[in-house]
Specification:
Strand order of the largest sheet: 8-15-16-17-18-19-20-21
CATH class of the largest domain: Alpha Beta
Number of helices: 18
Radius of gyration: 25 Å
Largest sheet: 8 strands, parallel
CATH architecture of the largest domain: Alpha-Beta Barrel
Strand content: 15-25%
Distance between the termini: 20 Å
Oligomer: single chain
Bound molecules: zinc ion
CATH superfamily of the largest domain: Metal-dependent hydrolases
CATH topology of the largest domain: TIM Barrel
Number of strands: 24
Structural class: alpha/beta
Shape: globular
């Protein structure tokens, strides 16, 4: 057997059914053709084989992110990232540098500043931004709340003066001594300026998405489930695919209203790009208390959230998705939404479809039994789970139900397949961070996963979730040569540092994309 690449002297976590570890593997074209000992693989090497000595580095099946908004991520990367800024002077310098690299009049957008990180808690204000970028409108969003700092140019373009009345639910800050605008806009008032910021052109968005794709590879991800939200995003995917600029495998998931448009995509290699799922939204999100619950939110007795679909409309949405040969990806967070979803699944009696409930959050024993019976897959975002407990304070809003909020360990113990994603850019892009969060969960520690379970959410379970378990998700003969190579084995480091492990190299379809390895 002629082999193209031999990886030897490695710590290969195969994630196969017996969880075996191997030393070496052989690749021919885009497939893994043998997994075994150094001895077995070196016996296959000939003069044309590329041999890579991994020096005991850890090899995982290529990581799969089951929930990411790639174009949105690209859009965020166009913005200044102020999350690390520790002083106003630092932000001033960043805006100044940006202003030098863009033409006059071009908007400078940033996000993530917080006066809590500045000395004396002083707010970022208009004159600082005027000095930094006198010829460009600037809008910089504060972290975790609807507050932004803008400069004079931005206020002018939005027509906001010291005499302007803020919209209901908003505020335009003024200096209490002079009555002049400080440049701080709050809540609904932020939209007065944001509303005049032009949309990026398709070309700008495409280039930003290309940058996002590189970051995704750098994060060790070899397959994504790309949740598309707009038609223009489909156009970007089409262009990038035809120009061969998407370096990883993509399962496109579209909302119902983009069905037809999505099926017009010209796909030249269906191993790399496919229309995989239809996003069906049964209820809203927990953090805005729009997830549909059976009993009201504990801190608001009149609110049970609301269902966005009823039995009939959900049933017909599912039917349509299945008829198109795509997987229904059903967003249902609250117990009432999950109950409705399961009722429709139970009555569809379709064993051929792998039903997927996205973010199934508020569960209980009876719902878990029904999920198990239907062999439905649950997808989660481990970082979102931590945010729900810490930022949203789930216990206050859900009371006793919190014990079964994302009960990942209980799901695993019931042999329910759980897969994971990042929800980037809402949360950071990192599968290793998700693994770390899932095994170190601070609340309800009985729901912590083992390292093996957490890794499965991004490998074998993620492949199973999309019906692709015969193609990827584990390192086995006949599967795609998609690999993520780490500097350390996550089992050998302090669990709180798993996210610091370096991604050494990434292989997709037999091609090394991020290669810091020496080839002998
Ligand atoms: Zn999302």
């Amino acid at each position: 057997m002629a082999i193209d690449i031999a990886l030897i002297n490695a710590n290969i976590k195969t994630m196969n059914s017996t969880n075996s570890v191997a030393e070496a593997l052989a690749i021919t074209k885009n497939k893994i053709v043998k997994v075994g000992s150094n001895h077995e693989i070196t016996a296959l090497i000939d003069k044309d084989t590329k041999v890579i000595d991994l020096k005991r580095k850890t090899v995982l099946p290529g990581l799969i992110d089951t929930h990411i908004h790639v174009a949105d991520y690209g859009r965020c990367l166009m913005w200044l990232d102020l999350t690390e800024a520790k002083s106003i002077a630092e932000i001033q310098k960043m805006v100044e540098d940006k202003a030098k690299s863009v033409p006059p009049g071009k908007w400078i957008i940033g996000q993530g500043w917080s006066e809590k990180r500045f000395k004396d808690d002083i707010m970022l204000e208009r004159d600082v931004l005027d000095t930094a970028a006198p010829n460009n409108p600037v809008i910089l969003y504060r972290e975790a709340s609807m507050i932004c700092a803008v400069n004079t140019q931005a206020l002018k373009l939005a027509g906001v003066t010291k005499h302007t009345q803020p919209p209901k639910g908003g505020n335009i800050d003024k200096n209490p001594d002079t009555g002049e605008l400080t440049g701080i806009l709050r809540e609904t008032a932020t939209t007065m300026v944001w509303g005049v910021v032009p949309e990026p052109t398709e070309e700008e968005l495409l280039e930003a998405t290309v940058v996002a794709c590189q970051k995704i590879v750098d994060a060790g991800i070899t397959s994504v489930h790309w949740l598309v939200i707009s038609e223009s995003e489909l156009a970007i995917i089409q262009k990038m695919h035809l120009q061969n600029r998407i370096p990883f495998r993509v399962n496109v998931i579209v909302p119902e209203e983009l069905y037809e448009k999505a099926f017009c995509l010209k796909v030249v290699n269906d191993q790399m790009l496919k229309i995989a799922g239809v996003f069906i939204v049964v209820d809203g999100y927990l953090d805005s208390k729009e997830a549909a619950l059976v009993e009201p939110y504990s801190d608001n007795p009149t609110n049970k959230g609301k269902l966005l679909l009823n039995y009939e409309t959900l049933k017909s949405a599912l039917k349509k998705a299945i008829a198109l040969g795509t997987q229904p990806v059903i967003h249902a967070m609250g117990d009432r939404a999950i109950d409705l979803t399961l009722t429709v699944i139970e009555q569809s009696q379709n064993d051929a479809i792998r039903f997927r409930i996205e973010q199934a959050a508020v569960l209980n024993k009876s719902l878990i039994d029904r999920i198990k019976k239907q062999k439905a897959v649950i997808t989660v975002q481990p970082k979102v789970i931590s945010t729900e407990f810490t930022v949203w304070s789930a216990i206050q809003s859900l009371g006793d139900r919190t014990r079964f909020l994302h009960p990942l360990k209980t799901l695993f113990d019931n042999q329910i397949v759980v897969a994971a994603g990042s929800d980037c850019p809402m949360e950071p892009l990192s599968a290793l961070l998700g693994v770390q969060e899932a095994i170190l969960r601070p609340n309800f520690p009985e729901q912590r996963l083992t390292l093996d379970e957490a890794l499965r959410m991004y490998t074998s379970n993620a492949a199973y979730c999309a019906g692709e378990d015969s193609l990827k998700g584990s390192i086995e003969e006949g599967k795609f040569a998609d690999l993520t190579i780490l500097s350390y084995d996550p089992a050998d480091v302090d669990p709180s540092t798993i996210n610091d492990i370096k991604i050494e190299s990434v292989m997709v379809n037999g091609v090394l994309l991020k290669d810091s390895l020496s080839i002998i």
